[in-house]
Amino acid sequence: xxxxxxxxxxxxxxxxxxxxxxxxxxxxxxxxxxxxxxxxxxxxxxxxxxxxxxxxxxxxxxxxxxxxxxxxxxxxxxxxxxxxxxxxxxxxxxxxxxxxxxxxxxxxxxxxxxxxxxxxxxxxxxxxxxxxxxxxxxxxxxxxxxxxxxxxxxxxxxxxxxxxxxxxxxxxxxxxxxxxxxxxxxxxxxxxxxxxxxxxxxxxxxxxxx
Length: 210
What we know:
- This protein has 2 domains: about 1-60, no CATH class; about 60-180, no CATH class.
- The longest helix is centred in the middle third of the chain and has 17 residues, at about 75-90.
- The strands form 3 sheets. Strands 6-5-7 form a 3-stranded antiparallel beta sheet, with no helix packed on it. A two-stranded antiparallel ribbon has the order 1-2. The protein has a two-stranded parallel ribbon with strand order 3-4.
- The mean pLDDT is about 85.
- The protein has about 210 residues and is an alpha+beta fold.
- It is about 35% helix and about 10% strand.
- The protein is elongated.
């Protein structure tokens, strides 16, 4: 039985269509592309859609459903905006658990070795693929193009703390997995002329110090 009961008018790039209520929400973020926000289309018909057809506002399940449609043709700005909406829900309600499915979805845009702009691949949080999160600006400067990195700058990573934690990306943060060590490079040379000149002035210098 066809349950396509909701009419969606033609958009800028899509023809008019009939869709099921499960493909819709009453109210939701502007970044949704594959799920239709009916409040924007039929603001006077909340009773019909909310009460009779049971259409609800966007929630975490809705946003993960939208994330499921991310492909390599999806713009980086769209992916970031969707991630930020998920983060907002997690921030506003700390009792919300993100669906386990989100950990296996290939939705994280990655810049491969040699790449410093856009993104090249989509990997999952729990996949075997090696990639990391540059969660500090100095890590981003040091490792961009040298290892596979999440294609977001450190400032945006900082705005996605709950999402990254909930899906298990914490172990990929460079601030956690990297170890720093200091070393001195270059040779050592003695400055004989300068040293002799300094030694000849030691007594005069000491008069001012002591």
